## 1
Amino acid sequence: MRHKLGYKKLNRTSEHRKALIKNMLNSLIKYEQITTTLPKAKVLKPQADKIITLGKKSNLQNTKILVSKLQDIKSANKVKKTLAKRFESRKGGYTRIIKAGFRYGDNAPLAIIEFVDRDIEAKKVDRKKKDTKKNQEEKKLASA
């Protein structure tokens, strides 16, 4: 029998677990694909699907709930404007989990969790663009 086994605890206190899920949700929304351990991905999947469903229903109450759950206005705006439009014809199943082998150090099972119709360019959000020769020459002239 499965009495009192409602959710995975992930060997963390409740505050730590909530913070972990919130941070992983924000990363998933920002990059649209993250690599994590398999148990964490399995906990994150229903949470991410609920966030997208909230974003699809556009009213003030759902917007406030989104901001309170994510604690990030940029992520909430991306959910409301970009992801909700992308998934408006889909009734559920916004994320997928792909098993990705085992981690080198502790042999933990890894998984990739991503949005089904993800934007491939979203992974490159924080990467700086490489300097071209023209930009390098301008920097040399400015510093001289």
## 2
Amino acid sequence: MIQLTSKQRAHLRSLANRLKPVVHVGTEGVSEKLLTSASEAFNKRELIKIRAQEGAPESITSIANDIASQVSGVHVVQTIGRIAVLYRPHPEDPEIQLPEPNQG
């Protein structure tokens, strides 16, 4: 899996500002139902926000990393407070054009 550069993460964060959370993590934590919900959200869009509710058993960072490790191709863009931004490019027709990584 490719690593996102800081410039690419900054671009994705700016795009995520206007988004509302589409996946909510409750007391069950990262369950099969939650993973299915996240996968379905990625079928409709490339960039999603998830929110950890008060009763979530883990931190948002742990939750985001769990989702990224269990759903193919997902990158954690940002975690802040109880919100995480996740990105997965569309395999055939990506809508989001990332800035080119700087070649050193």
## 3
Amino acid sequence: MKIILFTMLACFGVNVLADDHMRDVKTANPFIELHPKAVQPAADAYYKAVEEKVFNGAIPLKYAQLVALSASVAMKCEYCVPAHTSFAIAAGATEEEIKTAVAIAADVALNSSMLYGTQFDMDEFLKMFE
């Protein structure tokens, strides 16, 4: 399992080290090539900044990956869910934390659907949080 996980991480251009930081390794980020050639340098700079300033920023890496997993579940991204699950595990997340992140996404989706589907009044909703 660890060999598969770290192989996958290397494919994404990431190495999760013991200090809980994602580090760029010598492999190219495959997401860069998804962008038009004219903006690939800007995309490369963007991904590097996100890794350095977001995933290794104000929120500890494990929790940042759990947030990313929850967002991935909410978006129903079949690519992001396994990637952020693996990254979260590599950053120290437990199975229970993974399940909780998924449950949070499900709860937000449920309540969003209920509010939207019943056409709940927005002004009334906002008054609940004053």
